[in-house]
Amino acid sequence: MPASGLPFDDIRALVASMPAGNEAAAGEAQARDSVLVKPPGALGRLEDIAFWLARWQGKAKPQITKPTIAIFGSDHGVTKQGVSPYPSSVTRQMLDTFAAGGAAINQICLANNLALKVFDLGIGSPSGDITIEPAMDEREAAGTIAFGMEAIADGADIIGLGEMGIGNTTIAAAIYAALFGGDPTAWVGRGTGADDAMVKAKADAIARALDTHAGHLKDPLEVLRRLGGREIAAMVGAIVAARHQKIPVVLDGFVTTAAAAIVQAMNPRGLDHCIAGHFSAEQAHHKVLERLRLTPLLSLGMRLGEGTGAALAMGIIKAAAAMHNDMATFTSAGVDNRD
Amino acid sequence: MPASGLPFDDIRALVASMPAGNEAAAGEAQARDSVLVKPPGALGRLEDIAFWLARWQGKAKPQITKPTIAIFGSDHGVTKQGVSPYPSSVTRQMLDTFAAGGAAINQICLANNLALKVFDLGIGSPSGDITIEPAMDEREAAGTIAFGMEAIADGADIIGLGEMGIGNTTIAAAIYAALFGGDPTAWVGRGTGADDAMVKAKADAIARALDTHAGHLKDPLEVLRRLGGREIAAMVGAIVAARHQKIPVVLDGFVTTAAAAIVQAMNPRGLDHCIAGHFSAEQAHHKVLERLRLTPLLSLGMRLGEGTGAALAMGIIKAAAAMHNDMATFTSAGVDNRD
After folding, report:
1. Quick one: DSSP state of residue A76?
2. Would you say residue A167 has pLDDT above 50?
3. How far is B101 from chain A (nearest CA, A)?
4. Cβ B104–A327 below 8 Å, yes or no?
5. Average pLDDT, rounded, for chain B
6. B142, B145, B147, B150: CA torsion to nearest 10
7. pTM, two decimal places
8. Could you give the CA distance from residue B54 to residue B51 in angstroms, rounded to a whole number?
9. Which of A104, A300, A334 sits opposite B327 (nearest CB)?
């Protein structure tokens, strides 16, 4: 581990200084909503989405002209502990499949007209096996967070975050266990299709990791460095940078919300610019979302990762923005309003 | 009322003869799904949607090349009973707004690339006030059902049904009360924004209607004729015709499912080709969907009608079809499968 604590201090400063939303823009959006040609409140959550977009983009008429899905991939030393039915080789192969347009996420991005960006965080060089050592040293963790910050700086006006990494539901569950406490079995699930024995292996691995790193898990960035994966570190950076750049964030499922949990642990208002795309079928996700005080848009029993839940939710969010911006008003449409 | 019972008999025959699904196509779709490059079941409900499309289109690779939203509009004599905060004039004005592209449904159709068709079922000539008389005579009801059957025959490969009609949440609630029993108050809600007094007026109107038509509400088509509206009759026709034409159906909210309830009352398998687009915020909709054994795709607190819930759900369904048809397989992508 490098001696310098500076990089983490810089990150702490960026997390602490995440700006508040633009309430004037949100208020203007609410005023506009009240004259649109529909009964008040009739679009339900879609109206809240429009206000949320306005608040975090800082625009009364929020724009979604370049919606982007960013997927971060990495490998995990913990796979040595038999925590996934798939070999680690699949991480790289799936990134190749994203590039070739053959994965689930490619089809959703095409259907919803979303840009897709895929980032390889040293796939093939797994992070440390958390049962016996930290996943990353501080330089690596800080560098990966910074990489995630840079990755989104390309003009996206809303970003969906997702990931690919064989073994990373174990990594995410370890982070939840460290941040939220409780028995590791409460946070593990079937991931890509683990059987009972493998689910037990996941919980055992996490218990050993918590033991190995005991006494060093009070600081969320230390939790990330010791138990996390690079894709989760990068998503932490993306969430923080998006806030500074006025880019609302759509979170994917069980692994992506582990990055959100790190941010929230550092700043209780740190997720106000984030929407959860969906409830994952991973059993602990409901509990995680409750802790994060996020209510997902969708609940379709999905558990694929790749940003698929975020990308589907983005379709709903795009429609919400279109309605807010382009609907007629009672006056412009010449429709009689209620008394 | 015309003496002839023939038109209703023809409709009964069409409902009774609704064909079964194509299980071979659904089985082929399941076989294909099992080799797509993802863990088994990881797309959750989206996989079921692909099988459902295959079953009801009769194609292992279901096609969504012309998704269409059909909205049916009509006016209701029951508005004389003070059941809506909006005047009846709004029905026609909203159809004009659909034509001008200014409504919520226009924006969703643009965002999701859906065709939109709007049908005026004699707006301005309200159906009979159900508190004192039948909404329609048999010729009118049968003719309107037939109109709905014709309305969808234009090459759509999946259709979303919706409606517009001031007063029609009262009409839908009356149908539910007649079909499912129970106190009228159990089936009414705030519709476009009724206050407590108006909600009571809705329940009172339904109680009087049930009294007026007592003894004639065993036959679902009589329920439709006496208590229904033209938009609901047309949607009954659309649901039945779609089944015969191998067109899967996406239902909108509280009013649209009243048409579905009539069909189900006539044929317990009559909704197998239908998906509920969303849970409406109208309080009784959960109970209705339970009776219809439909689990909606979305739950976003919407209560607008216009087909908006169906059109948003169509975005999800389009993505499900795209994934099923266009994802690579483990073999074609060169991805290692689990042992």
Report:
1. B
2. yes
3. 8
4. yes
5. 96
6. -120
7. 0.97
8. 5
9. A104
